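Interim report, section 4.2 (structural modelling).
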Amino acid sequence: MNAYQKFKMTPQRIAIMNCLGQRNLHPTADEVFQAVRKMLPRISLGTVYRNLEFLTGNGLIKKNEQGGGQRRYEGNLEKHYHIKCTSCGRLEDAPIEPFESLENSLEGLCDYKIFECQVEFEGLCPDCQAKHSSRTNSQAEA
Amino acid sequence: MNAYQKFKMTPQRIAIMNCLGQRNLHPTADEVFQAVRKMLPRISLGTVYRNLEFLTGNGLIKKNEQGGGQRRYEGNLEKHYHIKCTSCGRLEDAPIEPFESLENSLEGLCDYKIFECQVEFEGLCPDCQAKHSSRTNSQAEA
DNA sequence: CCTCTTAATGGTAACAATTATCATTTATAA
DNA sequence: TTATAAATGATAATTGTTACCATTAAGAGG
Ligand SMILES: [Mn+2]
Ligand SMILES: [Mn+2]
Ligand SMILES: [Zn+2]
Ligand SMILES: [Zn+2]
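Predicted structure of the assembly:
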């Protein structure tokens, strides 16, 4: 019995899972809503929020709460780090393995019971670097 | 000339800075508002937001956008990691030094221009551990 | 001291993301 | 079937944040 079948998977939940199935995709609730309503035109945004929460709570997807803006969700359950573009908000998986030593580094150093360690690199994506340098150039020209 | 004096520091801005002066304190905008209005009863929440943004933009304080909930601010400008209690939301500084190797680990591995690396440990604070175990106990008793 | 100019403020309305509510629909099981 | 419970869609409410704008405060000459 696969983990999937332990839960009541309604058509709405399946559609949401499918939308998150691909790797390195981190849509917001509204982006999931827009994608899913192509298959289920009558689905409501509330149902999307409710089920993103349900699926997260049951460990079928992951919620990404970092970043001031909207919450993001993903289907990639493997431990990994993220890179965020501070200019356009783009979020993607970082192409490195998690640091074993980092995860355990607080052992015995504080009274918290640590479960997880979120790592998010911040920088400029290639597109935004291009935009930024072209803007600098045109300013120099003017 | 101290960095402070390069900017017009209104009484409101000074009060906000004072509120953030202590280490290991990460109040939300509203918590800053509540604290500051004890000194300046006529200050408005909009002014607090506006100036938290101003002070962040000028590097006098730091904004903490991680965590789904409210934004948090702090006066501690040194690079450091955080621990967040997933139960009560408490946020504090992690008692370890940043990992040099982590910060540079993406060098040459992606096309982003990386500036920063945010690290946030997640777990249960001592208080919430106590609450949680006492609840478990009373369930066992019942 | 007066103006003039500009920046900052307080108060409030608008906004966007998320959550709550509730009547209706759907699934499950006696 | 009928009964029961869970999930949904539609929409209202809430929350954190931003935008707006008339008023106030601060400087810079004169
Ligand atoms: Mn990811
Ligand atoms: Mn801190
Ligand atoms: Zn970008
Ligand atoms: Zn706690």
